[in-house]
Amino acid sequence: DKEDVFIVRRLNEIEVEESDVNKMLEGAINKDVIEIKEILSINDQDLMDIEYEG
């Protein structure tokens, strides 16, 4: 969904190591996405600031 796209784009934007991204996103569905946001200290405003392209 849109939030997953935002999370992935934010991860790319802050240049997290690709292997770490893959590990974090392996089970990134619903509640796991929230956990990833917490790990990376990403707040909702940060996500909203990223223009959605899909």
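(the above was protein one; protein two follows)
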Amino acid sequence: MRTVVHESHTGADFGGSRYLSKGAGCIVDQIYIDVRVKPEQRPYVVVGDNSIVSGSYVFERGVGKITIGDGSSIGGGSLLICSQDDGIAIGSHVMLSWNVTVIDSNAHSLNPDIRKMDAYAWKLGLETGQIGAYKDWGNVSSKPIVIEDQVWVGFGSAILKGVTIGKGAVVAAGSVVTKDVPPYVIVGGTRRGLSVTSRVKDGRGTRRFLRCREIPITKNC
């Protein structure tokens, strides 16, 4: 039996030499950019001044852009996956801890009759060195993600498609964020949804507290 392993392909960029644009004072630490379909000679990841970036950046369909502002940090083991034209926007002075996932699509169709072909399409892409080229994205929902300035996302969290996280918000470790997060709140994952525990200091230095409440998770298809 033959095992096919592809460590590299046409759109793979180990270290950011081809698809990364970085500002002054930016530190790049073990970054991997993967443009899976029809890679273009352009920056897919754009980073501002004095930021520290690690992790993997995947462009499933060869479209869109991931932007990161000034003075931000992306932790090791983080995975950012872009599959739509409007991309993923991360503001300035943002901290994404290690092993954070940011994904702007469902990744697969919710229709099992369509989804059943995805594993074969992936196998075919590995065998031909054209990863992602055979997948049908026509029935996969995707929406842009915005993480505003001064947000802190704890380790092991997942930010899903269509979400905006407001300025100064904190997302507790291990949370799954499926809905927008207001500015200057602390949220943490529960079985029912995200619990808003308090407000944090805003730009005026005031501190305001809220009663705990639930942001229910609704279908986001």
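Reviewer note on protein two: The CA atoms of residues 169 and 184 lie 4 Å apart.
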